[in-house]
Amino acid sequence: MASKSPGAKAKGLGAELRVLRQRAGMTLEDAAKPVDLSKTILSKLETGHRNIAFPEAIGLLALYGVVGEERDRVLTLARSVDEPGWWEVGIPGMTKESATLADYETIANGLTDWAPLLIPGLLHTMDYARAIFGMYDLAPHVLEARLNARLRRQQTMWRPEVTYTAYLGESALRSVVGDATIMAAQLHALLDAQRRSNIAIRIVPQNLGPYLGQLGAFLKLDFRPAETVVHVELLHSGVFHDEPRLTDPYVKAVAQLAEVALSATESTRMIDAIAHEMEGQA
């Protein structure tokens, strides 16, 4: 059976192998010959343009002197690089871009959302998500499939090794999606998520500026050892940036958001206050 095309796992594994080679003080040519690879093939492995075979991974790690837990972790990733994820089983209405995003989310070790107008998908309640998807006039079976996919994506945040930070615009808390009852439940869900040690939710008040975040929402995904991908969602699609010249402005935007956002404690108070306002309206 032919292996699947390289995806986010291959990119993440390749980046780790490159760092390990450089740490061992080897060039591509130095490392390729002892494991019977060409310099070109090894370069493709390190850039994620070719999936690595498990014996190749074993040989490279031995060559680089990688042992113990670090070796076990890298080999686990190499062993699973060809395994299909839940997003590859033909979910109705799931776009290629959405599947790619799910692929990246499963291996990222850090996620940072900036959502100025709406609650981001990784924090949605199902009623809030249903109201959002309802705007697209989807067939019932497609809607339910999308909701199931949203639930599966959210499992990313329950991995304790993943850090998730959400910067939410105050407008995202106050803009009613569905109705006030749905909004109140959604805001209480934010408070519940905030209690997890690996999740931070911080609110950016209205009437601030100017700052880069005002230019639009995005999701920044960070990977070991030092790789960043940014996803910018559009109305019916999305784009990915993975070159430093394209991701650096978003890294700068996150730094600015950290400066202007309320503290975690102040953010919790604001979310709680607006949740009570929504309950009063309901």
For the residues shown, what is the average pLDDT?
86
Query: Percentage of helical residues?
Result: 40-55%
Shape: elongated
Assign the structural class, choosing from mainly alpha, mainly beta, alpha/beta, alpha+beta, or little secondary structure.
Answer: alpha/beta
Q: List the strand order in the largest sheet.
A: 3-2-1-4-5-6
- Strand residue content: 5-15%
Sketch the major β-sheet: 6 strands, mixed
Number of helices: 12
N-to-C SSE string, H for helix and E for strand: HHHHHHEHHEHHEEEEHH
Based on CA atoms alone, the radius of gyration comes out at 21 Å
Distance between the termini: 56 Å
| Counted beta strands | 6
Please describe what this structure looks like:
- The protein has 282 residues and is of the alpha/beta class.
- Helix 1 packs antiparallel against helix 5, helix 4 runs antiparallel to helix 5 and helix 10 runs antiparallel to helix 12.
- The N terminus is likely disordered.
Helix and strand arrangement:
Blueprint: H1 8-23, H2 28-32, H3 39-46, H4 54-63, H5 68-80, H6 96-107, E1 110-115, H7 126-133, H8 140-154, E2 163-169, H9 170-174, H10 180-194, E3 199-204, E4 218-223, E5 227-233, E6 238-241, H11 244-260, H12 264-281
Parallel strand pairs: 1-2, 2-3
Antiparallel strand pairs: 1-4, 4-5, 5-6
Helix pairs in contact: 1-5, 4-5, 7-8, 10-12
